[in-house]
Amino acid sequence: MKQRLRVCVLGSTGSIGANTLDVIARHPERFEAVALTAHSRADELFQQCLRHRPRWACLPDPAAALDLQRRLREAGLSTEVLQGPAALEQLAAHPEVDAVMAAIVGAAGLSPCLAAARAGKRLMLANKEALVVGGAFFMRAVQAGGATLLPVDSEHSAIFQCLPEARARWPEVIDHLVLTASGGPFRQRDPDSLHAVTPDEACAHPNWIMGRKISVDSASMMNKGLELIEARWLFDLPPERLKVLIHPQSIVHSMVVCRDQSVLAQLGTPDMRVPIAYALSFPERIESGAAPLNLLDFAALQFEAPDLRRFPALALAWQALRGPEGSTAVLNAANEVAVASFLAGSLRFTGISELVARCLEQVLPAADEVGSVAGLLELDARTRAKAQELLGKP
Ligand code: NAD
Ligand code: MG
């Protein structure tokens, strides 16, 4: 019998985490969820442990971790509860873990992702911010550790699915990539009214159900900006060979334009279980739980060029991508602070890009900050401090 793949799900209580557990549960003969980690939703983590009976669970807060341990014992489970940030790295690199689903949101996922990369795991990457912050350094860690990096972001999974299995052949095949974007909830809204939109309006995505941070990023199109940067590293392409098209139906998940002008695309209903299932089963394919795509449900598939006045965040991502190394880490940290502030009701929606632009001007990455995790985390912290300071004096 084939050995089951032992999966560690970092961020199991989130949208990607829950979808991953859904796919795993459909294939008990193939996959085993051996480690589950969450940030705060202890009750949900408890329920997931009852369902999946992992060997390890992890919560950062010591009191919450102790409480979870007690509840699991009372329920008759032998799951061991770990706590603290070092525990995430320990689980991601554990010899009895084969694959890591990186589904933490934000730069907080960088260190555990690097730990998985260095330990040579099958690293299924949803946590795009980790790659946006880590850039070249992250990719070197993947190579040095002999890890298999598999994209989970739907656009990057689409591109990956269109490319030959042998990475060495990618440069010979690709002319350029086209990332598709839904345009989010504000695609047709008057740009002059965007200053007044609420967090709930920004999180009401027309096609995808996702965590709140990525939903706001989709509304500002910073998400597509982060994805351009992600594509730059995953597929090793310069910015001029990356393009973005708005495609409101979210059916064509992205495209590879080949040297011979043949265009390859991957299509499907918008359901993250498809790219998750592919990352879990690659190079094979398994049932994902997604509904079949019926093209007859669509009278037309539309494509539009993105309007950079409506979506200045996308222009800022291009700017960071072309800027000095480390600029994308500044972009990401400033955006994380801005989005948290918008969700808390203390920053206008249009203030998000304004704050990111000011941080890109005022925080200059130092050469010694981009060559180590400590340096990158220092740059991240320095940018967050600047963003907080700027929020204090508009
Ligand atoms: P989410 O907010 O629903 O879940 C985030 C998870 O990370 C939760 O389990 C939370 O407990 C954990 N977490 C949050 N902060 C943490 C911290 N500081 N330390 C440790 N754990 C922490 O987010 P999501 O929508 O599932 O997105 C997760 C990642 O996947 C993001 O990077 C997002 O950009 C990416 N992604 C998501 C989707 C989607 O459909 N949701 C699609 C593509 C990419
Ligand atoms: Mg995406």
Automatic annotation (TrEMBL):
<dbReference type="GO" id="GO:0030604">
    <property type="term" value="F:1-deoxy-D-xylulose-5-phosphate reductoisomerase activity"/>
</dbReference>
<feature type="binding site">
    <location>
        <position position="155"/>
    </location>
    <ligand>
        <name>1-deoxy-D-xylulose 5-phosphate</name>
    </ligand>
</feature>
<dbReference type="InterPro" id="IPR013644">
    <property type="entry name" value="DXP_reductoisomerase_C"/>
</dbReference>
<feature type="binding site">
    <location>
        <position position="155"/>
    </location>
    <ligand>
        <name>Mn(2+)</name>
    </ligand>
</feature>
<feature type="binding site">
    <location>
        <position position="205"/>
    </location>
    <ligand>
        <name>1-deoxy-D-xylulose 5-phosphate</name>
    </ligand>
</feature>
<keyword id="KW-0464">Manganese</keyword>
<dbReference type="InterPro" id="IPR013512">
    <property type="entry name" value="DXP_reductoisomerase_N"/>
</dbReference>
<feature type="binding site">
    <location>
        <position position="182"/>
    </location>
    <ligand>
        <name>1-deoxy-D-xylulose 5-phosphate</name>
    </ligand>
</feature>
<dbReference type="InterPro" id="IPR036169">
    <property type="entry name" value="DXPR_C_sf"/>
</dbReference>
<keyword id="KW-0560">Oxidoreductase</keyword>
<comment type="pathway">
    <text>Isoprenoid biosynthesis; isopentenyl diphosphate biosynthesis via DXP pathway; isopentenyl diphosphate from 1-deoxy-D-xylulose 5-phosphate: step 1/6.</text>
</comment>
<feature type="binding site">
    <location>
        <position position="154"/>
    </location>
    <ligand>
        <name>1-deoxy-D-xylulose 5-phosphate</name>
    </ligand>
</feature>
<feature type="binding site">
    <location>
        <position position="153"/>
    </location>
    <ligand>
        <name>Mn(2+)</name>
    </ligand>
</feature>
<dbReference type="Pfam" id="PF08436">
    <property type="entry name" value="DXP_redisom_C"/>
</dbReference>
<feature type="binding site">
    <location>
        <position position="13"/>
    </location>
    <ligand>
        <name>NADPH</name>
    </ligand>
</feature>
<feature type="binding site">
    <location>
        <position position="16"/>
    </location>
    <ligand>
        <name>NADPH</name>
    </ligand>
</feature>
<feature type="domain" description="1-deoxy-D-xylulose 5-phosphate reductoisomerase N-terminal">
    <location>
        <begin position="7"/>
        <end position="135"/>
    </location>
</feature>
<feature type="binding site">
    <location>
        <position position="127"/>
    </location>
    <ligand>
        <name>NADPH</name>
    </ligand>
</feature>
<comment type="function">
    <text>Catalyzes the NADPH-dependent rearrangement and reduction of 1-deoxy-D-xylulose-5-phosphate (DXP) to 2-C-methyl-D-erythritol 4-phosphate (MEP).</text>
</comment>
<protein>
    <recommendedName>
        <fullName>1-deoxy-D-xylulose 5-phosphate reductoisomerase</fullName>
        <ecNumber>1.1.1.267</ecNumber>
    </recommendedName>
</protein>
<feature type="binding site">
    <location>
        <position position="227"/>
    </location>
    <ligand>
        <name>Mn(2+)</name>
    </ligand>
</feature>
<keyword id="KW-0414">Isoprene biosynthesis</keyword>
<feature type="binding site">
    <location>
        <position position="129"/>
    </location>
    <ligand>
        <name>NADPH</name>
    </ligand>
</feature>
<dbReference type="Pfam" id="PF13288">
    <property type="entry name" value="DXPR_C"/>
</dbReference>
<feature type="domain" description="DXP reductoisomerase C-terminal">
    <location>
        <begin position="267"/>
        <end position="385"/>
    </location>
</feature>
<keyword id="KW-0479">Metal-binding</keyword>
<dbReference type="GO" id="GO:0051484">
    <property type="term" value="P:isopentenyl diphosphate biosynthetic process, methylerythritol 4-phosphate pathway involved in terpenoid biosynthetic process"/>
</dbReference>
<feature type="domain" description="1-deoxy-D-xylulose 5-phosphate reductoisomerase C-terminal">
    <location>
        <begin position="149"/>
        <end position="235"/>
    </location>
</feature>
<dbReference type="GO" id="GO:0070402">
    <property type="term" value="F:NADPH binding"/>
</dbReference>
<feature type="binding site">
    <location>
        <position position="14"/>
    </location>
    <ligand>
        <name>NADPH</name>
    </ligand>
</feature>
<dbReference type="InterPro" id="IPR026877">
    <property type="entry name" value="DXPR_C"/>
</dbReference>
<feature type="binding site">
    <location>
        <position position="218"/>
    </location>
    <ligand>
        <name>1-deoxy-D-xylulose 5-phosphate</name>
    </ligand>
</feature>
<dbReference type="Pfam" id="PF02670">
    <property type="entry name" value="DXP_reductoisom"/>
</dbReference>
<dbReference type="GO" id="GO:0030145">
    <property type="term" value="F:manganese ion binding"/>
</dbReference>
<dbReference type="InterPro" id="IPR003821">
    <property type="entry name" value="DXP_reductoisomerase"/>
</dbReference>
<keyword id="KW-0460">Magnesium</keyword>
<feature type="binding site">
    <location>
        <position position="223"/>
    </location>
    <ligand>
        <name>1-deoxy-D-xylulose 5-phosphate</name>
    </ligand>
</feature>
<comment type="similarity">
    <text>Belongs to the DXR family.</text>
</comment>
<feature type="binding site">
    <location>
        <position position="128"/>
    </location>
    <ligand>
        <name>1-deoxy-D-xylulose 5-phosphate</name>
    </ligand>
</feature>
<feature type="binding site">
    <location>
        <position position="15"/>
    </location>
    <ligand>
        <name>NADPH</name>
    </ligand>
</feature>
<feature type="binding site">
    <location>
        <position position="224"/>
    </location>
    <ligand>
        <name>1-deoxy-D-xylulose 5-phosphate</name>
    </ligand>
</feature>
<feature type="binding site">
    <location>
        <position position="227"/>
    </location>
    <ligand>
        <name>1-deoxy-D-xylulose 5-phosphate</name>
    </ligand>
</feature>
